Amino acid sequence: MTETDKDPIEFDASPVDMWVGVPLGGGQMKDPVAPNDIRRWSQGMQNCNPLYYDESFAEAEESRFGELVAPLSFSICTDDSHGAAPAIQGNIPGTHMLFGGDEWWFYGPRIRPGDKITRSRMLFDYRVTNTGFAGPTMFSRGDTEYVNQNGEFICKQRSTSIRYLAEQARKRAQFSEEQDPTWTEEQMIEIEHKKMAYFEKIQAQLHQRKLNVQPGEQLPERLIGPHTIASFTTEWRAYPFTIWLTLRPGGRPSSLDCAGRFLEITPNF
User: Fold this and answer.
1) How confident is the model at residue 38 (pLDDT cuts 50, 70, 90)?
2) Does residue 123 lie in a domain region?
3) Chain-wide mean pLDDT for the chain?
4) Cis upstream peptide for 249 (omega within 30°)
């Protein structure tokens, strides 16, 4: 690809072509979902709905499920790479990767303790365009579908990866002047009070499922962050793939581990 006539920049995306539409491999969970898997995830996400961790609440007569169920976000917890692997295929040396977000489609069935979740993966498409921070940049999308042991489709995740030439981003240094925000002790205390107020409002709803929002209604405010080492650790350890030998190989090919990203920090074994 040529950025300008005076400064041509080549971004060879052809290695990605062979992976588009190809069923991909990746890890599959060995064991069924356990109640503590769901509890750990809910805690890591700071999701205080007792439906996800308190069996006495979830099994109550008023409960619409009759047992613990996982929050919708738990689906990604059953995967080995945040569901992003299908969007990172084909070797493009010298590139770095940014996560570009997800689209989700949920089909109705919920994940419950004892479920065995499997995944199918495929690179959906890609395009290369010019960006201000790195010049030619690839936006690729990949699909992960989550299925339970009964053959029921739980959901589909379409993940986007942003792959760019690291050297070009360094030259532009577009974000080099940005600084992390600082927080005062008073601000942190105020945030904690707001978080506790949110938890109390959610738990006060008990089994009353809210389907519609009325004009002018004040909704509880859920704050996410600022993160700490403890909160990041709690979130990271909620993923089963952080535990040794939680997954088995899926038996299909994948080029995720040789896609050419993070070149300078790849260990030399």
Assistant:
1) very high
2) yes
3) 88
4) no
Contacts (Cβ under 8 Å, ≥6 apart) of 72: 104, 106, 110, 155
CATH number of the domain within which 78 lies: 3.10.129
Report the domain count for the chain: 1
Q: pLDDT tens, 141-170?
A: 999 999 999 999 999 999 999 999 999 999
Asked whether residue 58 is assigned to any structural domain, the reply reads no
**Could you give the CA distance from residue 6 to residue 218 in angstroms, rounded to a whole number?**
56
65 is a domain residue: no
Q: In whole angstroms, give the CA distance from residue 146 to residue 8.
A: 42
* Inside any domain, residue 254: no
Structure-token match 């949110």, residue found: 198
Q: What's the rounded Cα separation, in Å, for the pair 250 and 100?
A: 25
Tell me, what amino acid is at 143?
D
> How far apart (Å, rounded) are the C-alpha atoms in residues 82 and 39?
18
Confidence (pTM): 0.86
Task: Evaluate whether 197 touches 136 at the Cβ level (below 8 Å).
Answer: no
Q: Provide CB contacts within 8 A for 80, sequence distance 6+.
A: 26, 27, 241, 247
Give burial (CB, 10 Å; 0-12/13-18/19+) of 70: buried
User: Reduced to 3 states, what is the DSSP secondary structure of residue 40?
Assistant: helix
Instruction: Determine the 3-state secondary structure of 184 from DSSP.
Output: coil
d(CA 153, CA 166): 38
